[in-house]
Design goal:
Blueprint lengths: L1 H17 L5 H9 L3 H25 L10 H14 L4 H14 L3 H29 L1 H4 L2 H26 L1 H13 L3 H15 L10 H24 L6 H15 L9 H12 L4 H29 L4 H5 L1 H12 L1
Helix pairs in contact: 1-13, 2-14, 3-4, 3-11, 3-14, 4-5, 4-14, 5-6, 5-16, 6-8, 6-10, 6-11, 6-12, 8-9, 9-10, 11-12, 11-14, 12-13, 13-14
Amino acid sequence: MLWLLVGLVVAGVSLAYFFHNVKPAELRDNLLGTPVWEILAVVALTLLTLWLRAIRWGLILPAGRGDRSGLFGLIMVGFMVNNVLPARLGEVTRVLFLWKRNRFTIAESAGSVFLERILDTTIYLSFFVIPILCIPKLRAVHTLVKFAIPTACISFAAIMGLLLYGLFPSFSKKTCRTLINISPEKIRHRAITIGKELVSNLEWIHSPVKCPIVIVLSVLIIACYPAMMIVLVHAQGFGILGGMFGAAWGAIGASVPSPGYVGSLHAALKFGLVLLGIDPARAISVAVIYHAVGYLTVTIVGLYYFTRMRISFKEIGRAKEELKKEEIAEE
């Protein structure tokens, strides 16, 4: 209940900024003037990025264990749940049903979803940094540059961490164990759990076939969002760098807890597009279409798979408690 209240407050404040000084007639004209092909392109790119996620998910899960069937449906249901329920329950839902239906362990299931988040966040961080370094008008905003430097460091550290594990797995495990042992008692148990979850899903790093495929898929998954930006903004001079920057701001907004990403995504995306020189009215209409089309596509297709899999919202509501009990039993 607390998360819902926090989300509603965030959504309200964000929407107040988003619609500040908006002329309803101008917004209506921009929305109604959007060509049908642009909307269809966003629908196709939304489904494409989720289909690529299902392929990557199958590759990063441990080989020779569990059942990899139905991963696309699980992803659609997970993202649909994120759209309609608070506290990002979609990720917990994916973990629960990957364990119950596909027979992976809790550690393998949770670790695969957590690893996805690391890969996606790393690429989004690069999509934030690269345009700032390459577009003069963004480089002139000193606050952005100040944020870009630590962001680049975090992205680089994540890449180097995965690379180090791939080249020197024994050394990496030993170093992590040492760091965990000297960490405060309060975070030691959680760090050990996360470590086990991640290690169980890193076999692909040692494969000369899987590793480059996972890397390429990870880039393509996130690249679908700049492609949506380019299609919707449809302005001269707004190319791949602008699309990357807009998509990064959209991801920043989506990371803020608000129901169905409403408000937070819109406000962040508008802010990013205006920094690129896009007219505020146009930025607002792009944000509305970008969110609405993606939201409806995921929710409709997710509900289809939800009914096919015979999942109930009651099961989803109990997901966190059920997973916690199983984790304790496994220990």
